[in-house]
């Protein structure tokens, strides 16, 4: 049984953590309100410029640079730093674009001329809409990935998306409310999420997943040639419901434009018995994401602890 002193200290620590989270969230919301008073392009460019200067001074920069050094040992320090700076600009744009989603998303399936948003793979969207069969679409933290479910909705596709809420509970609550408004059904990645997604597929619905997040357990795979664990959920859902799987990604283009791409269904690896090979499927997802990241390295979130090295760096006094 915990002593009264230990319980009191725990309550104090939790209270201080809540105060810290509330303070950070209040500052973030104030900045977003300020941004909303400006024209969209001007506000987004301003935030981009600030992030490119401030981001490299944060503790996350050290983790990003370590990840880049491991993923790109052939690149120089200056080249890796340039990628990190672009990453901070991309991340800040992603945050600012939340404020202007209604204004930014001008895609209309009936229009022949592309606007700010262009879509590649229209025939696949139409096929999925007309077939009305269960399917899974996966993506990664590249470009403004938040635009993908909005594009699906433009084709009357209701995709239930699995997402990881921010660690800050005040920010998480606000983000979830914003996403529900424009992005359909959302499932926070916590206990019970797998059952919710399974029921969706069983009912003939569609599921969306981000597959490039850190996962402590799961399939042993490689990413950029480095050992890492990958969430086996997608492969297990395919094994159970035998549904097609489609890669999709968002790419930032010059001039504040975006290209959203959905690719043909991938061929799922199977064993000699015909069952889905979970480990091989997880590796296939990593290979696809790696190909995307290598094409546009500055549009991926390198400050995530994908290879679980944060504790190593802390032990070495480097973080």
Q: How far do the termini sit from each other? A: 34 Å
Q: Quickly count the helices.
A: 12
Number of domains: 2
Lateral arrangement of strands in the main beta sheet? 1-9-8-2-5-3-4
Give the amount of beta strand, in percent: 15-25%
From the spread of the alpha carbons, the general shape counts as globular
Order of helices and strands: HHHHHEHEHEHEHEEEHEEHH
Oligomer: single chain
Number of strands: 9
Describe this structure in words.
Its main location: membrane. It holds the Pfam family Lip_A_acyltrans. InterPro entries: LipA_acyltrans. It is a single chain. The chain has 12 helices and 9 strands. It has 2 domains: 4-101, no CATH class; 107-299, no CATH class. With 319 residues, it is α/β, with parallel strands linked by helices. Strands 1-9-8-2-5-3-4 form a 7-stranded mixed sheet, sandwiched between helices. Helix 2 (40-54) packs antiparallel against helix 4 (77-99), helix 3 (59-71) packs across helix 4 and helix 10 crosses helix 11 (278-295). The mean pLDDT is 86.
């Amino acid at each position: 049984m915990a002593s009264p002193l230990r319980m009191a200290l725990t309550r104090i620590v939790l209270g201080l953590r809540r105060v810290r989270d509330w303070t950070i969230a209040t500052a973030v919301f104030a900045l977003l309100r300020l941004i909303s008073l400006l024209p969209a392009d001007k506000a987004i460019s301003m935030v981009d410029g600030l992030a490119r200067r401030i981001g490299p001074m944060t503790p996350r920069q050290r983790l990003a640079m370590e990840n880049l050094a491991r993923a790109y040992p052939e690149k120089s320090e200056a080249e890796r730093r340039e990628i990190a700076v672009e990453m901070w600009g991309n991340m800040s744009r992603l945050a600012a674009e939340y404020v202007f989603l209604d204004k930014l998303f001008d895609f209309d399936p009936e229009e022949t001329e592309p606007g700010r948003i262009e879509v590649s793979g229209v025939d696949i969207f139409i096929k999925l809409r007309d077939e009305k069969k269960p399917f899974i679409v996966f993506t990664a933290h590249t470009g403004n990935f938040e635009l993908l479910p909005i594009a699906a909705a433009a084709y009357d596709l209701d995709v239930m998306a699995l997402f990881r809420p921010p660690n800050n509970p005040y920010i998480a609550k606000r983000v979830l409310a914003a996403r529900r408004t424009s992005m359909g059904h959302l499932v926070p990645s916590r206990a019970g999420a797998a059952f919710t997604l399974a029921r969706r597929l069983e009912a003939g619905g569609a599921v969306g997943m981000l597959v490039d997040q850190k996962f402590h357990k799961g399939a042993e795979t490689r990413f950029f040639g480095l050992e890492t664990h990958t969430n086996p959920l997608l492969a297990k859902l395919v094994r159970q419901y035998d549904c097609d799987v489609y890669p999709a990604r968002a790419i930032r283009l010059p001039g504040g434009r975006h290209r959203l791409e959905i690719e043909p269904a991938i061929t799922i690896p199977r064993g000699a018995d015909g069952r889905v090979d979970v480990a091989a499927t997880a590796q296939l997802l990593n290979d696809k994401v790696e190909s995307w990241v290598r094409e546009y390295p500055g549009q991926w979130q390198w400050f995530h602890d994908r290879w679980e090295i944060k504790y190593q760096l802390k032990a070495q006094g480097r973080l």
